[in-house]
C-alpha cells in the first residue's frame, strides 16, 4: 500500500505538493517510477517499460548535512544533496521511485549509487570513458541491453522493439519542442530572462505526460515569439551571456538571477541538457537499440576524454546566439569540469576572443555577496 513518509506534515507546502502529485499519479494509473540522474540515461527504455522517469538530482542545501553522515564533506553538492534527501525521505521522487537507473559518469556519483542501492533496487550502467570508436559504441549498446533486462525484471514487464520505437518518437518530439524554447534566446533582445527560461525548462522535467511537455513548450515558444515581435524587436539589451559548465539548478538564484539583476542578458546554456544535446535526436530509421547507443554517446560532458564536442558547441553557440561573454559554473569538487576549465578559458579567450569568467561554488548562500561583486566586476569589463 502506498503511504506518505512519517515526516510528511513537517514539510513545506511545495514539498508536500510534490509528494501528493506523484502519489496521485501512481494511484491513478498504477505506473512504476524509475529515478534517474543523468543525461546519459536512455529514458526511452523506461517509457517503453510503461513506467515514468523522474530526475533525482538535488538542487538545494537541504539534505547536505544529513548526507555527511555517510559521505565526505569535500564532495560535489549535487551528490550530497541528492543522497541526503533520499536518506531522510525528503525527496518525493526518490521516495516513490520503484528502482534507480544510474550510470558511471563521475567517481563520486558511482560510489554514491552503491550506498543508494541499499535503499532501492539500483542498476548502474557502465559508461565508456571515451565517446569515440566502435568499441565505445559496442560497450554502450551492451549496457543498454543490460538496462533493458534490469527494467524488465524489476518492473515485471516486457520491453518490445515496437514500444521502444514509439518511445523514441515521443522523446524526439519533446527534444524538438525544448530546442524551440531554448532558441528563443537567439532573439535579440530576448523577450524573457535566462532565469525564467531555465525555470520553465526545469519544470517540464516533472510533467509526467510526454505530450503535455511538448504542448506546454511549443505554446510558450509561440507566445514568446509574438511577445518579441510586439514589444522587443529593435530594442537594445544588456551584454549577452552564455552559461557553460556543471548543472546549475542549485545555484540559479545567486548566479543567473544576479547576472540579470546587474543588467546582463543570459540567453544561452551549454551543458549536458542544453539545446545542442537536445538537438541530437535518436535515429528512427535504424535498429532502435543501436540508435539509442549512438545518440546518448553524443552527450557532451567533461567526464569524456576527449570532450571535443564541448568546444565545437561553444564555437557554434557563440555565433548563433550573438554572445558577448562566457561564464562557466563549476560545482565544488567537480574535478573533471575544474580541470577542463583551463582549456575552455584558453579557447574562449584566444580563439573566440571573448571575456571569460569561471565561478566555483556550492549550494550555500554564504558566498552570494562575493559572487555578486565578481559578477559586477566582470560585467564592467563588457561595458568598457
> What portion of residues belong to β-strands?
5-15%
Main β sheet profile: 4 strands, parallel
Distance between the termini: 64 Å
Q: What is the average of the pLDDT values?
A: 95
Structural account:
The structure is a single chain. The protein is an alpha/beta fold. It has two domains: 8-159, Rossmann fold; 163-383, Rossmann fold (3-Layer(aba) Sandwich), CATH 3.40.50.11900. It has helices at 13-29, 43-48, 64-67, 77-87, 92-95, 107-116, 134-155, 161-182, 194-204, 210-232, 252-261, 275-279, 288-297, 308-320, 335-351, 368-383, and strands at 32-36, 51-55, 99-103, 122-125, 240-245, 265-270, 325-331, 356-361. Strands 2-1-3-4 form a four-stranded parallel sheet, sandwiched between helices. The chain has a four-stranded parallel sheet with strand order 6-5-7-8, sandwiched between helices. α4 packs parallel to α6, α8 (161-182) runs parallel beside α10 and α11 packs parallel to α16. The mean pLDDT is 95.
Provide the descriptors you would attach to this structure in a database record.
single chain; 384 residues; alpha/beta; Rossmann fold; four-stranded parallel sheet; 8 strands; 11% strand; globular
Please outline the helices and strands.
Elements lengths: L12 H17 L2 E5 L6 H6 L2 E5 L8 H4 L9 H11 L4 H4 L3 E5 L3 H10 L5 E4 L8 H22 L5 H22 L11 H11 L5 H23 L7 E6 L6 H10 L3 E6 L4 H5 L8 H10 L10 H13 L4 E7 L3 H17 L4 E6 L6 H16 L1
Parallel strand pairs: 1-2, 1-3, 3-4, 5-6, 5-7, 7-8
Amino acid at each position: 500500500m502506498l503511504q506518505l513518509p512519517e515526516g510528511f506534515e513537517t514539510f513545506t507546502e511545495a514539498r508536500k505538493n510534490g509528494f501528493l502529485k506523484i502519489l496521485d499519479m501512481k494511484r491513478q494509473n498504477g505506473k512504476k517510477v524509475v529515478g534517474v540522474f543523468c543525461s546519459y540515461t536512455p529514458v526511452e527504455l523506461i517509457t517503453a517499460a510503461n513506467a515514468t522517469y523522474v530526475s533525482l538530482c538535488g538542487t538545494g542545501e537541504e539534505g547536505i548535512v544529513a548526507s555527511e553522515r555517510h559521505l565526505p564533506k569535500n564532495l560535489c553538492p549535487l551528490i550530497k544533496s541528492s543522497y541526503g534527501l533520499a536518506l531522510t525521505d525528503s525527496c518525493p521522487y526518490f521516495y516513490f521511485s520503484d528502482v534507480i537507473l544510474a550510470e558511471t559518469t563521475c567517481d563520486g556519483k558511482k560510489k554514491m549509487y552503491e550506498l543508494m542501492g541499499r535503499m532501492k533496487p539500483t542498476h548502474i550502467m557502465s559508461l565508456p570513458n571515451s565517446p569515440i570508436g566502435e568499441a565505445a559504441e559496442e560497450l554502450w549498446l551492451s549496457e543498454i541491453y543490460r538496462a533493458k533486462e534490469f527494467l524488465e525484471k524489476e518492473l515485471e514487464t516486457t520491453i518490445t522493439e515496437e514500444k521502444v520505437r514509439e518511445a523514441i518518437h515521443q522523446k524526439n518530439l519533446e527534444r524538438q519542442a525544448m530546442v524551440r524554447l531554448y532558441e528563443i534566446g537567439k532573439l535579440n533582445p530576448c523577450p524573457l530572462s535566462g532565469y525564467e527560461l531555465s525555470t520553465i525548462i526545469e519544470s517540464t522535467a516533472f510533467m509526467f505526460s510526454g505530450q503535455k511537455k511538448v504542448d506546454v513548450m511549443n505554446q510558450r515558444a509561440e507566445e514568446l515569439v509574438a511577445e518579441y515581435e510586439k514589444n522587443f524587436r529593435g530594442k537594445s539589451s544588456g551584454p549577452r551571456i552564455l552559461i557553460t559548465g556543471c548543472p546549475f539548478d542549485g545555484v540559479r538564484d545567486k548566479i543567473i538571477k544576479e547576472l540579470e539583476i546587474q543588467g546582463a542578458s543570459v540567453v544561452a546554456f551549454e551543458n549536458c541538457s542544453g539545446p545542442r544535446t537536445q538537438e541530437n535526436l535518436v535515429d528512427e530509421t535504424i535498429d532502435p537499440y543501436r540508435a539509442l547507443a549512438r545518440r546518448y554517446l553524443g552527450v557532451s560532458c567533461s567526464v569524456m576524454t576527449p570532450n571535443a564536442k564541448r568546444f565545437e558547441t561553444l564555437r557554434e553557440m557563440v555565433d548563433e546566439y550573438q554572445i558577448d561573454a562566457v561564464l562557466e559554473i563549476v560545482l565544488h569538487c567537480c574535478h573533471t569540469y575544474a580541470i577542463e576549465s583551463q582549456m575552455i578559458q584558453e579557447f574562449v579567450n584566444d580563439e573566440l576572443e571573448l571575456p571569460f569568467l569561471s565561478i566555483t561554488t556550492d549550494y550555500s548562500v554564504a558566498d552570494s555577496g562575493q559572487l555578486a561583486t565578481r559578477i559586477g566586476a566582470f560585467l564592467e569589463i563588457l561595458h568598457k
